[in-house]
Amino acid sequence: MDWFFNFPHMDDDALRNLKKFIDESFRAFTRAYGDAIEGFFSPLQTFLIYSERFMTKTPWPIITLIILAIAWAGSRNLKIVAGCLFSLLAIGYFDMWDDTMRTISMIFVCTILSIAIGIPIGIMMSRSDRLQRIVNPVLDVMQTMPSFVYLIPVVMLLGIGKVPGLIAVVIYAIPPMIRLTNLGIRLVDKDVLEAADAFGSSSWQKLVWVQLPLALPTIMAGINQCIMMALAMVVIASMIGVQGLGQPVLKAIANQYFTLGIFNGLAIVGIAIIFDRVSQSYGQRLQKHREIIHG
Questions:
Q1: What is the pLDDT of residues 209-236, one digit of tens each?
Q2: Domain spans of the chain?
Q3: CATH class of the region 55-286
Q4: What share of the chain is helix, strand, coil (3-state, %, to 5)?
Q5: Which residue of 8, 28, 44, 279 pairs with 224 in a disulfide if CB–CB is 3.0 to 4.6 A?
Q6: 61-65, 171-175, 284-288: which range is least confident on average?
Q7: What CA–CA distances, in Å, run from 263 to 238, 268, 270?
Q8: How is residue 240 annotated by DSSP?
Q9: What's 216-267 look like in SS3?
Q10: Does the model's pTM come out above 0.70?
């Protein structure tokens, strides 16, 4: 009756050999292609470095004005702009400005990369049910896999630094971008598409001038969720050398510095609220515009 209480499992030696085979195969792949993969991502590293330099070397009043201008352009709401100003002044006053700018530059690059990869994949999924059935399980795995696990293969391939952290953050944050792009395009009214066909629109014209504009509020929701998940990954990515607000939080956990952890955690919350309110407000404006134009 031992099998009744202990679940039958693979032989210990066979399981050990299987794990050893997988580990050795991945190490061999890393030795063979690690340099080539690192070279492939070197432009991304350059982009990230220049973005971080711009955010940290530009005088703080100019950065503040740029962020407030973006907040106003996206929201057209003075309360949101005032909230952004208060958050930025509080972050600077408590000496977290440089780390915050590094975090914002990381989130900016992650968001650009996620949009550049996620929207085309979402468009392809919306055009093919077969591709959607293939990609959906992959997205399920990406969203449910513990975030620490992403760091293992990335570090083995690229070592410790900004780019491995960036890749881990993008992998963690991109699924909502893909899913909501696919959903937004699929929810476009069929009558509108039939009208576009009746006017002789090509497939490309229908996508660019009809489907994407009508799906834009849903796509904006995907961008919002992508940013939120990227911010949630910042602390974990600090374990592999990503600079920013995550590193002081990690230091606070290791040394039990309560105030350091709380202050930097609140700074992350402040950034998240800024991104969330501005992107949500912009999405709502797009939704209202669509309702006015299309009834």
A1: 888 888 888 898 898 889 888 888 877 8
A2: 55-286
A3: mainly alpha
A4: 90, 0, 10
A5: 279
A6: 284-288
A7: 16, 9, 10
A8: G
A9: HHHHHHHHHHHHHHHHHHHHHHHHHCCCCCHHHHHHHHHHCCHHHHHHHHHH
A10: yes
